[in-house]
Write a structure and sequence with these properties.
By secondary structure, this protein is α+β, with helices and mostly antiparallel strands. It has two domains: about 130 residues, GTP Cyclohydrolase I, domain 2; about 120 residues, GTP cyclohydrolase I, C-terminal domain/NADPH-dependent 7-cyano-7-deazaguanine reductase, N-terminal domain (GTP Cyclohydrolase I, domain 2, 2-Layer Sandwich). Helix content is about 20%, strand content about 30%. The chain contains five helices and ten strands; from the N terminus they run βαβββααββββααββ. Strands 5-3-2-10-9-8-7-6 form an eight-stranded mixed β-sheet, with helices on one face. The protein has a two-stranded antiparallel sheet with strand order 1-4. It is elongated and about 65 Å long. The N terminus is likely disordered. Homodimer. It catalyses: 7-aminomethyl-7-carbaguanine + 2 NADP(+) = 7-cyano-7-carbaguanine + 2 NADPH + 3 H(+). Its main location: cytoplasm.
Length: about 280
């Protein structure tokens, strides 16, 4: 598959050798305009066809307290889908590493600093929560609904094709999921492994076709957020459901995992969950 660095990432740290910072520096965050990647899907900035968030977990968060003693935590960030910008993942990691040798008077100061810097980069309010590494909220859970991965199908197409999406006449309300989602980083080509959940009310989806479609992302190069938006738009166009939620939970890389979800207005994802593979 052809590989090139998108124009929006020419100066990004992703795919480049980087010195890890020892000092806090909000300037390390590298924002990327969402509009360029949404345009090919027919998504206009002022009229999004979905609601949603990009939920991030950072497992390598540490800082020094006022006396120089290290504190460690796991962070959950929620970046709204209607923010003009997303934040490139390696720059986010480098930024967080700048906290490692920085003193903060309290955890509240850490949260306030993160909220301020991330909002400036994304041009929207970003939710920030910090958890202890043994916090019960981080215990892995399972995706709800029926897994479609055991279907005995033959595959010879590893690029996304909405032609695989077919529906019947019966209107149903159901939740399906697959752990066979894989896409590739658009810059480094590294594999991004994930699980995807589809919850909808509308004409019944053909499960063989849905699985073929999802597996079609296996050689697709794009960011996690854009893959989820691509899936959402294709399902809306081909299946025309009354309600739809698409949620992907990607395996962590570099201490960060990204779990975007997009939905028709009024839909919400299941309560916060983290899978064992994350």
């Amino acid at each position: 598959m052809s590989h090139h660095r998108p124009d929006t990432l020419v100066h990004a740290p992703l795919g480049r050798e980087s010195a890890y910072p020892e000092d806090y520096d909000a300037g390390l965050l590298y924002p990327i305009e969402r509009a360029a990647n949404r345009a090919p899907l027919g998504i206009e900035a002022g009229a999004l066809p979905f609601v949603g968030e990009d939920e991030w977990h950072a497992f390598e968060v540490s800082w020094l307290n006022a006396r120089g003693k290290p504190i460690v935590a796991v962070a959950r960030f929620r970046l709204p889908a209607d923010s003009p910008r997303l934040i490139e993942s390696k720059s986010w990691k480098l930024y967080l590493n700048g906290f490692n040798q920085t003193r903060f008077a309290s955890q509240e100061e850490v949260v306030a600093t993160l909220e301020r810097d991330l909002a400036e980069a994304a041009r929207a309010a970003v939710g920030v929560e910090l958890f202890g590494v043994d916090d019960a909220v981080l215990v892995p859970k399972r995706l709800p609904g029926e897994c479609i991965d055991d279907r005995d199908i033959e595959i010879d197409d590893y690029t996304p094709s909405a032609e695989h999406l077919r529906v019947g006449e019966e209107v149903v309300e159901e939740t399906l999921h697959s752990h066979l989602l894989k896409s590739n980083c658009p810059v480094t080509g590294q594999p991004d492994w994930g699980s995807v959940l589809v919850r909808y009310r509308g004409p019944r989806l053909d499960r063989d076709g849905l699985l073929r479609y999802l597996i079609g992302y296996r050689q697709h190069q794009d960011f996690h957020e854009h893959c989820v938006e691509h899936i959402f738009m294709d399902l809306m166009a081909r299946a025309r459901p009354e309600r739809l939620l698409v949620l992907a939970r990607y395996v962590r890389r570099g201490g960060l995992d990204i779990s975007p979800w997009r939905a028709t207005p009024g839909e919400r994802p299941p309560s916060p969950l983290r899978l064992a593979r994350q």
